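Hi R.,

Here's the chain you asked about this morning:
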Amino acid sequence: MTKPIHAPLPTIGEDPFLWLEDRTSKPALDWVHGQNARTKERLQGDVSYPPQYETALELMTAEDNIAVGYELRGQVYNFWQDKANVLGLWRRTQVASYKTDKPEWQTIIDFDALSAKEGVRWVFSGARRLYPDFSRCLLNLSPDGGDASEMREFDIETGTFVEGGFQAPVSKSSFSWLDIDTVIVAAAFEAEERTQSGYPRVVKLWKRGTSLAEAVPIFEGQVDDLAVGGALEFDGDAQYLLLTRSIDFYSGHHFVRLASGENRRLPLPDDVGDIALLKGQMVFGVRSPWSAPGGTTCLPDGLYAFDFTRWLKTGDIGGIETVLAPAARVSIAHVASTRDRLFVSLMDNVRGRVVFAERGERGWSLTPVALPENGNVDISHINQFGSSVSFSFTDFLTPSSIIWSDDDGDTLTTVKAQPARFDASALVSEQFEARSRDGTLVPYFVVRRRDQQEPVPALLYGYGGFEVPLLPAYAGLRGKLWLEKGYAYVQANIRGGGEFGPRWHQAALRDKRQNAFDDFAAVAEDLVRRGISTPSMLGIQGGSNGGLLTGVSLVQRPELFGAVIIEVPLLDMLRYTELPPGASWMAEYGDPSKPEEAAWLATYSPYQHVADDADYPPVLLTTSTADDRVHPGHARKMAARLQAAGHANVLFFEETEGGHGGRGDRRIQAAQTAMKYVFLEQALKGRTK
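And here is the predicted structure, written out as tokens:
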């Protein structure tokens, strides 16, 4: 059962730790440095830390890791990091060379060299390429690993930044090409250009030779929208400028800009899902049932199409065709197309498969791609201007591989396979179901020794939000630092995620959020019932929305767990919209400024539910000063409140760079990984109390 609140919830005005929300103030950073020192002493001072750190760094920077790449005009592009290239190389090689064991790479940009030259630790944040030769790009560089980036125009053939070319300062704006002399800018530089979430509100066209301030607005959203965006969409040789007004995470309006300057809205529902263009047809999915013109009912987890070319000419959507009909426990993970085929990556009871769709005289047909079964298969890269496509395959015990096709999936060749990083011969991967509080059956995976007879330390991982699925995947570090020691790993497919499509997500949306927390607790209880682990030997881990999950689990069900890791989390759900860009998630959680919605948020918000008299297990909270997606104030305040309430087994660690995803220097990532495994062993094996 949900743990009762031990004291009246404090109001925001009574919050004694608001000062920790000031990201870079001296008092806040002094507190952070003190906490970091204490945590390093406890975890890095453990005798097991040095070998675990070395193992983590070795595997993260191994030269035989798979170089995942994407192909354009016969070249495969890849971003690579190893011990010698800490911040990484952006590089390329010929397709034929890529398929060999030792490709001959040409470096495009050495980010360590660039950073040394300019005195800024630049983190590569992607590049938008100019059609059709793709030699020019709009390069994004983050100064700290956060989401905000600087943009510069770069010439790949000369390996230099374009003198006098397009350049924009650090912001959360986005850029893409319209043509060689025009950039599409989704602007978020000035306050009036940003939504309340801090993302772009205005799309502009920026002409070469003019200043950014002279860019001409062509599209605007509302201040309370999530964001707007614009980019070219290609269908063979045809190009369309599509504009998007994202009202929130799950609804928006899509427009095509006509030659006349009119922005014509696509005839689709607000909650349309995937969109793709293929041979004049617009393919789309929906998140809720939609009665389309002509009487067709479109359902979630299906794909549908209409004649886009006809609609552009006449304004009439015509008939709706079914591309892929919905099926029980099957959901759509990814939709993308080559020049001639539409590929659909599916999740079938949390296992992957891929089909391709083609349209003939009798309508749409589906053909399975002959990929390995009973694992996680997905589209790794796809060339929308050609016919190359590659797929990834993995599961918990099978190292990742890249399966390549140069001919739209007809011929498949495994071109890359990661070496085994741990001994899996004695291990087994199993799928079970737990019955949640309301009777829903929740699937979960367990990886453990095949001959396990008694309960062992286990790590339970979950996410449960934003329609994001958790799928089986090989993790060499987890295998080496956890599974090889005889411990178990558990992955819970709780509601709120996307494992079974929009309805699985919507079952834990907003006022239904408690369902996700109940699902997670049910999996923990089922593990104990099956004898896989015990509460004192069961650790839990989650990041971002998963950090909210483990934070709630800590305060609601502390008796179920022996250790809790809370990474880059949301925790103060009564103030999350005040910490940018928290307002962007109101469609997921609710709006705390509205009394009715604040009431349901208050029932579970972890920060307000810390109790003095609770018996909490050891806790490790981690965040980043540079995290501009989930504010570090959440983790800081939670740690401070727990410690002030007398809970001594609370550790906090904040890295100064890396952003929300911990990008950048692998040494920093290796250190945090090693500390987390040390923490788990200390707590679950009773080495500290």
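One quick note: The two ends are 26 Å apart (CA to CA).

Cheers,
M.
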